[in-house]
Amino acid sequence: MFWKFDLNTTSHVDKLLDKEDVTLRELLDEDDVLQECKAQNQKLLGFLCRQQCMEELVSLITQDPPLDMEEKVRFKYPNTACELLTCDVPQINDRLGGDETLLNLLYDFLDHEPPLNPLLASFFSKTIGNLIARKTEQVILFLKKKDRFVSLVLQHIGTSALMDLLLRLVSCVEPAGLRQEVLHWLNEEKIIQRLVELIHPSQDEDRQSNASQTLCDIVRLGREQASQLQEAPEPDPLLTVLESQDCVEQLLKNMFDGDQTESCLVSGTQVLLTLLETRRAGTEGLVDSFSQGLEGLCTVSSSILHGIEPRLKDFHQLLLSPPKKKAILTTIGVLEEPLGNARLHGARLMAALLHTNTPSINQELCRLNTMGLLLDLFFKYTWNNFLHFQVELCIAAILSHAAREDRAEASGLEGRVELLPGSGDPEAPQPAASRPENTMVTHLFQKCCLVQRILEAWEANDHAQAAGGMRRGNMGHLTRIANAVVQNLERGPMQTHISEVIRVLPAPTAVRREPCKGAPLLSPGTAPLCSGMEGPEGTPEGHRKGGLGGQGSCRTSRALTGKGLSSAGILAHKPTSGAPRYEVSMGTTAVRISLCCADTTAAVSPSPPIPPTPQCSPQACGGLFSGKVRAPE
């Protein structure tokens, strides 16, 4: 069958407009009035553009509807009026943007005492924003004539819609010349300094939060605009002020001098983090941070760093004693002393500062032992993965310092020659250990005892699980940190320096296991390693035959069995130019052991004696161990 369509049906809006006494509200009650307006129904547009109708539409979006109206329909007319005023029809835009009486009626909304009705504020912001985009010159000229415009917007900055309006002024003005004129006007009004002053403990939280978000968006928008321009862009005056040392110092003064509140500390730190943002390759995991590197890093303004450096002690104190918080109930029990958002943002700032690899900041953080404090928090708050990730990023930044330095040096060379680790080339670059930025690496491994703490935490977790407890919440991040340490120990610019640092660690810093009562520990100098094979020498088949199944002729299997470890624990062998490496099972995890054969064969007494492997030498691996904790696949 076929449906019958009447393609010549007349809209009910047209029928209403044929009435002599039709009212605006009658039209607003029609469901298709907006559709007819967008379709540019000339009869409807002629009615809406009448002075009386335009004034009524503006009044609907700027004046609170009567309180005695039913809540379901109370904002129906204001909502429809806003949609009509912003439907991007040229006749309405011209009528509203070109009539100063209507603009004044719209502007009067800002004269209301705070707080503004958030829904009406959104209607107002949307309407003004549409005019800024469509009737730019007329509206900007009108706003510049209003001496109190910026003051009124800042007075209502606690309402998110007014924050959006301010950002529209910064980002939606075209062409570039007019946009630059608007930026200079806002700069003359000291918009940045006044926003910074709003991030203060004396202000309410909404105003602080929105002021902070506005500053962050101004930074991002300014940098994005500069990067998109083909020609050398004219400096953004707002961004220049915001990146100045004076502005950073004033922000930090508001945060730390006098009473400290979490909202002020968090809001201020968010601005600093945005200023320190760099376009870098993603560092989702620590293990990837060396291979991917941070090639995309762009230089952070030195004025920002100079402003932050004297206040590092305040951030350290914040990590030690944040604003007091009440105990909270979590899924694992009552947390008497929550970490808090302020300390979490402090950790985020430390990670961002370490990524800048600024020697003076690194030295100050070493003096304060801030990394040691962050590790304390890492192991104290075992279920706060937000914190764990930030500590992981801090360690990633420290381990990547030399890698970035080497890439920067190599970028200026026409050719590239890669030297193998341990190469004796007398013309090789200066060793990593002598570079000033590696002070942080030494601090991390020696004073912060990173390796010892990883091993202790891993052993404590194993004991807890063996007793029937659950796996600790920070073990995933701890695994990634341990893998990153081993990866940087095995290869890369930090290899020599990390090896030298670990060499001086105390002997108990080893991967230990007690397979049964009285069995010896697996530790440096006593660990059995394969130094030769009775299978086809130098081939993985010999190890697979003798090691993986626990039966066969591999001497490592017999050596492991002799030390109280099951030979079935050998999971893999990775032949390299340095020490042979094995993965030995430890319960539900795997620990990869890497030792120099020359230092360990004396402690193993199979018959006949095991000679060192030809390719292994103390110079190649330093006789060091490295424990690589790996989650089972």
Q: Notable features of this structure?
A:
single chain, 633 residues, mainly alpha, 4-stranded antiparallel beta sheet, elongated, protein phosphatase regulator activity, SAPS, protein phosphatase binding, Serine/threonine-protein phosphatase 6 regulatory subunit 2
3D structure, described in words:
The chain is mostly helical. Among the domains are: 11-189; 341-408 and 439-505, no CATH class. Helices cover 55% and strands 4% of the residues. The chain has 34 helices and six strands. It has helices at residues 12-17, 24-28, 33-38, 42-48, 51-62, 71-74, 76-85, 90-97, 100-107, 118-134, 136-144, 149-155, 160-171, 176-188, 191-198, 205-228, 237-242, 245-256, 262-275, 286-292, 302-308, 312-320, 341-356, 359-368, 370-380, 385-410, 439-447, 450-466, 475-490, 495-503, 540-548, 555-562, 597-600, 618-621, and strands at residues 328-330, 333-335, 570-573, 581-586, 589-594, 628-630. A four-stranded antiparallel β-sheet has the order 3-4-5-6. A two-stranded antiparallel ribbon has the order 1-2. A hairpin with a 2-residue loop joins β4 (581-586) and β5 (589-594). α15 runs antiparallel to α16 and α19 packs parallel to α23 (341-356). The longest helix is centred in the middle third of the chain and has 26 residues, at 385-410. The protein is elongated, with a radius of gyration of 34 Å. Mean pLDDT is 76; it is low at 280-297, 406-437 and 508-633.
